[in-house]
Every structure is written in C-alpha cells, then in structure tokens.
C-alpha cells in the first residue's frame, strides 16, 4: 500500500470514529427548568432511544438554558454544534413567519382544541420546509398550554394594560398582539421573570398556567387574568447537518420516538391545566376570566398584520373550524 493510500485509510478511520462518537451521545438543549413537562419528556425520549437502540445511542439533556437561549441554540443546531432541541415554535417563527399563524388569538377554543390543531396534517406540513429554510428537521409538536396574564396591579379592562411593561417571549406574533393592545411588551428570559415581577421591573407577564403556579409568579401579583388568548406550541428539532449523517434506520427511530415524546406534552397539559388554574384561583388573588371581547380591536389588528405575514393562517383557521 502506498503512503498516500495509507493516509486515505487512516483519514477514513478517523472520520468514522469521530462520527460514531458523535452519533452515540446526542446533546439536547431546552430553556425549561428540570421539573418542567418538556424537560421530563426530553429525558423520557433519551431513555427510550437508548433502550430501542440497545445502547447504541443516548441523549444528554441540558435544561434551563445551559447551552444558551433559544436563539443561540438554534444557531448551534444550524452548524451541527448541537444535535437536538425541544424549542418553542415562537423562536422558529422568527425565521419562518408561517409558523406565527399558530399564535392567532383565540384560534383555539380551549386546550383540547389546541391539541387537535397541533396534531393536524396542516400543522405537520408546516415542518416540511424547515431543513431548507432554517437548517433543522422538525419531527413533531408539543405545547405549553394556553397563555394567561399576571399583573402587579388591578386590571378591570384592557385599558388598564395600556402602557404597562409586560413581559413576553421575544417573538413577533406576541409582540404585535401587545403593541396592538397598547401595552409595552418587554422581552425577557424566563429565569429573570420572578425577580423582575417582584421588584417592579415589569408590571405584568404573559405566561402559561404551569409556570404561574409551579414557579409561583402569582406571589407578586394582584390580578390573574385567565384569558386563554393564545396557544403556545413546542417543536422537537434535530440539526439538519446531524440528520444528514444518520442512517435511514436511525432517522426513522429518532423521528418516531422524538415525535412520540413531544406529543405526550400535549396530553400532559390537557390533563393538568384545569387543576393548575384552580389552584391559582385559590391563592386569594383577584382572579378574572375574560374572553376575546376583553381585548377590543387588538385581535382584529393582529389578524390584519398576520394575514399578510403568514400564508398558512387561512389553512390553520380552516383546521381550527373543522376540529371544534
């Protein structure tokens, strides 16, 4: 064997070894804390992948922004530096506006209805362009329930939210909603929210029932509005670069198992959200249930903006109507 041929063989062996080491232990990032439903689903996915692959693959789960915020993790997925993530659809919608259609105010009548929309063929079709558009493979949806509003002050009408610094997840659909309402939407990472609400850095927050209860955001509130105004989907993602190096067998196994475990979060929120809301209502804070009429013309303004931004909005509304 010539020296050049030996070099080629050695290089091939090194490349194969490097790939095998990478493929055996996938890294999966999330922003949610360890006790969160998404984190538990990620851990369950990793455990089942290890079992079904007979130990050939494992997943190291990094919760609570250990690998960065979602924008940073998405960049890592694009380069292949991160293998997988369970991520808010919100973050991906910053790059793919069609996904912003999921946040149409009151498109979902209740949490069960939100689950049916996310499990539809139309919703699944919105994941198909992601490898080319964002550099990630979307395998399926989960969610974090419906959105509520927690305020440090009294809120009797939408006018009382006008001008308030209101913490939001930093993405365009919810920014447009609160701008239309006249609030001052304030993007802020999740770990900073409790202290910000406690010290008055923000006046109110947009949040799901699980975190309002589990992380005790209600402790620094005067008013909780059960508004249920938007669903908050999650998506299971794999780096397209990593995906391209996997065998067809491994792709099929990962797709099936990750889709299964992100989907379990939908059932978890359907089962638990009513109880969380009941416990929040029992804290003694002013607790008010409101509907779409509470928000005045803000919903109409949002619809006007997003009918132009998201071509998928009409299709998702059709699904919503068919699955009521």
TrEMBL record:
Record's keyword terms, sorted: Signal
Top-level taxon of origin: Bacteria
InterPro entries recorded: DctP_fam, TRAP_DctP_sf
Record-level GO BP terms: transmembrane transport
One of the record's GO molecular function terms: carbohydrate binding
Signal peptide stretch: 1-23
Pfam family, one: DctP
NCBIfam families xrefs: TRAP_S1
Name of the protein: C4-dicarboxylate ABC transporter substrate-binding protein
Organism the protein comes from: Notoacmeibacter marinus
